[in-house]
Amino acid sequence: MIRVLVVDDDALAVELHTAYVERVEGFVVVGHAAGARAALTALTDRARAIDLVLLDMTMPDGGGLDVVRHLRAAGSRVDVIAVTAVRDSDNVRAAVSAGIVHYLIKPFTFAAFRERLEAYRAYVEGLERAAGSTTQSEVDALLGSLRAAPTPLPKGLSDETLAVVAERVRGSARPLSSTDVAEAEGMSRVTARRYLEHLADTGRARRESRYGGPGRPEITYAWTR
């Protein structure tokens, strides 16, 4: 499991980001910090192992960039994802220079949040597989998994509805058909099928055939675990 520290001076943001993390497979929140000083205290506590920090960039007692620079000066290699409303290019450039792996601008959807965490998880898993000496192609694949741009949705699909359908498929103990999803979420079967097909096309779900009667088998969708 990837152990996460959530840092934000807004208690509602901490609650929301914690809930988001807990919905993404492979991650667990191990602590919260309400400011820069509290974050540094948590991150220098040798009794608490932290792999990833979700870090607000503007807090009353210090900036997120100051936290990252202090950590790097102290030799910390913890990874950081900036979660912030600050969007000017100078801050983005400074964040990248400081080694922040992703920069997520508030407000954002759960789908956008999940996409960054899943990209980071793929990067970590790739590092584990490539332990020791790596080839150029392995390095390219690692950096590509981390920096891959979000895939734009096909016309007519929304991030919010995609997240709902994905959660329905992910949480099901059995493969679901477009009829199953349509009835559960109150949408048309055609709409449900478009979202399910997108999940399958992007590798998050797999297609299966359900045989239960005469005629053609029904196509169902199961989450790729």
TrEMBL record:
<dbReference type="InterPro" id="IPR051271">
    <property type="entry name" value="2C-system_Tx_regulators"/>
</dbReference>
<dbReference type="GO" id="GO:0003700">
    <property type="term" value="F:DNA-binding transcription factor activity"/>
</dbReference>
<feature type="domain" description="Response regulatory">
    <location>
        <begin position="3"/>
        <end position="121"/>
    </location>
</feature>
<dbReference type="GO" id="GO:0003677">
    <property type="term" value="F:DNA binding"/>
</dbReference>
<dbReference type="InterPro" id="IPR024187">
    <property type="entry name" value="Sig_transdc_resp-reg_cit/mal"/>
</dbReference>
<feature type="modified residue" description="4-aspartylphosphate">
    <location>
        <position position="56"/>
    </location>
</feature>
<dbReference type="InterPro" id="IPR036390">
    <property type="entry name" value="WH_DNA-bd_sf"/>
</dbReference>
<keyword id="KW-0805">Transcription regulation</keyword>
<keyword id="KW-0902">Two-component regulatory system</keyword>
<dbReference type="InterPro" id="IPR011006">
    <property type="entry name" value="CheY-like_superfamily"/>
</dbReference>
<dbReference type="InterPro" id="IPR001789">
    <property type="entry name" value="Sig_transdc_resp-reg_receiver"/>
</dbReference>
<keyword id="KW-0963">Cytoplasm</keyword>
<keyword id="KW-0597">Phosphoprotein</keyword>
<dbReference type="Pfam" id="PF00072">
    <property type="entry name" value="Response_reg"/>
</dbReference>
<keyword id="KW-0804">Transcription</keyword>
<keyword id="KW-0238">DNA-binding</keyword>
<dbReference type="GO" id="GO:0005737">
    <property type="term" value="C:cytoplasm"/>
</dbReference>
<feature type="region of interest" description="Disordered">
    <location>
        <begin position="203"/>
        <end position="225"/>
    </location>
</feature>
<keyword id="KW-0010">Activator</keyword>
<dbReference type="GO" id="GO:0000156">
    <property type="term" value="F:phosphorelay response regulator activity"/>
</dbReference>
<protein>
    <recommendedName>
        <fullName>Transcriptional regulatory protein</fullName>
    </recommendedName>
</protein>
